[in-house]
Amino acid sequence: MLGFCWFLFLLKKIQTWGVEYASKRICAFEGSTVEISCTYTYPPWISYKKTVVQREFWFTKWKDNKRLDLREDPDYAGRVTSHCSEQNCLLRIWGLKRSDSAEFKFRFETNQPDGGFSGNPGVFLTVTDPPETSSVSVSPSAEVLEGSSVTLTCSSDANPAANYTWFKDNRTLLSEDKVHFSSIRSEHSGNYSCKSENKHGQSSSTPLFLDVQYPPRIPSVSVFGKISKGSSVTLTCSSDANPAANFSWYKKDEDSPKASGPNWTISDFRTEHSGFYYCEAENRRGRLNSKLKSRWGRCEFVDLLVLQLNTSPDINSPSAETEAAEEQLELHYSSIHLSENQEECLYSNIRRNPKPRQRPEDNSVE
């Protein structure tokens, strides 16, 4: 009795239409080769008619209301083979693409009426890949101006989607796919790079230098050299600017510049050089000069004043009428500056005292 039941079980199984896949889900890397296999069964006889398999094929889509043989699908041209032997079939696909991710089904057709069978559900193939080379883009793509809105975007082709990390000057900045500056500042300049990563790998972008341009800040003026008649005096102007500023020197109430460049040297200082001097810094983003005064800024200019004084002869001196008047030189140096937390300019003056005059009768110092 047990043997007869076993015979009926085998007979039923042999006569069953079916497709059995070796795997239900397959993951493969882009560019690699994948193999999908199955076995199929069918009843050898139906109504005294022997079953003959006439066609075996794999498909993922339909065309003209018919299942499209994968070997005839132009999307797989030159990349697919299928081989069947003794009801075992093997599909091989190489050069996998992201677009190959799909459900693959096997079907066989026989000479029996309605004698075709497809294995449902099929095999789900997922083509994955580590992130390709990450790239950084800037929007807007024109030159970056201080105060403007700027967005940096990191992108990478990856499946599954990548997670992103931003770096500035090799220091971690944030974990987003974008970095947005609503009003970018000069201190935001630097080298920016991003890393994209998923469970299959990671890639890093080439660093992008973000160059934030801005007009000159209020210039700072300094004086070098001993200020005396006939000496060499150098005025130096500096200003933070991007791109670098060009400098011009002016004398107060004169329209034409006296000199150009950050340094101006007066090699033979004379009385006519006395006056107020200021410098102007300029780049293609704007211009500013050192004589401007701002509540939040600084104002600086240099006052170089040379006075030549003639002393009057002492009427009590016997030689007063014949002694030439002794020339005395009096020098002033003034700098004016306003610090960021002051509203008015601060003045500082240095005066070199005149040479002491001696009285002929007692040689005492006045």
TrEMBL record:
PANTHER family in the record: B-CELL RECEPTOR CD22-RELATED, VASCULAR CELL ADHESION MOLECULE 1
Its keywords, alphabetically, are: Signal
Q: Does the keyword Signal apply?
A: yes
Q: Which first-to-last residue range defines the signal peptide?
A: 1-16
Instruction: Please name the source species.
Output: Oryzias latipes
Matches recorded under PROSITE patterns: IG_LIKE
This one is known as Ig-like domain-containing protein
Which residue ranges does the record assign to the Ig-like domain?
Answer: 131-209, 219-289
Is Signal a UniProt keyword of this protein?
Answer: yes
Region feature (Disordered): 347-366
From which domain of life does this come?
Answer: Eukaryota
Coiled-coil stretches, from where to where? none
